[in-house]
Automatic annotation (TrEMBL):
Transmembrane segments: none annotated. InterPro entries: Polyketide_cyclase/dehydratase (IPR019587), START-like_dom_sf (IPR023393). It comes from Gordonia phthalatica. Coiled coil: none annotated. SUPFAM superfamilies: Bet v1-like (SSF55961). This is Polyketide cyclase.
Length: 148
């Protein structure tokens, strides 16, 4: 099963990338969460191999995700290792320039369902995450971070 959501932001692609790739910043757009990061051993601590553990009041279990692809200002992919209600959950966020100077943010996810209706749950998850990230990007833009 899969889910795809595309949104736009006034942020430049560089500024949008900062919001997408800064794992510690998740606490600023996902309410009542904590993030523990095991950094990548590569050039960027948020890059391929980084592991983020996301816990919080609204989460029934700690979510453990490993970054599997990291192309600065373009693409971030990750795979869930624990804490999600699906098997083989993988997601990718792709950023594309818009003619107006903003950025298109495409979030897609695939997973193997366990129960009937899991496809609806997956779509709701991706839509919810994209909405929260979009709010964070709007706040950054309002604070003057639209261009970088």
């Amino acid at each position: 099963m899969s889910a795809n959501v595309i949104r736009t932001t006034a942020l430049s692609r560089d500024a949008a990338w900062q919001a997408v790739s800064d794992h510690a910043d998740i606490v600023n757009w996902a309410p009542r969460t904590n993030v523990e990061l095991t950094p990548s051993t590569g050039d960027d601590p948020n890059g391929v191999g980084a592991v983020r553990r996301i816990s919080g009041l609204l989460l029934p279990a700690t979510i453990v995700e490993r970054v599997t692809e990291f192309t600065p200002t373009e693409r971030l992919s990750y795979a869930a290792e624990a804490g999600v209600p699906f098997r083989n959950y993988e997601a990718t966020i792709v950023l594309r320039d818009r003619a107006d100077g903003g950025t298109e943010v495409a979030w897609s996810a695939t997973a193997d369902g366990r129960f009937p209706g899991d496809d609806v749950l997956l779509r709701g998850l991706v839509l919810g995450l994209q909405t929260l990230l979009g709010r964070r990007m709007s706040a950054i833009a309002k604070a003057g971070g639209a261009q970088s």
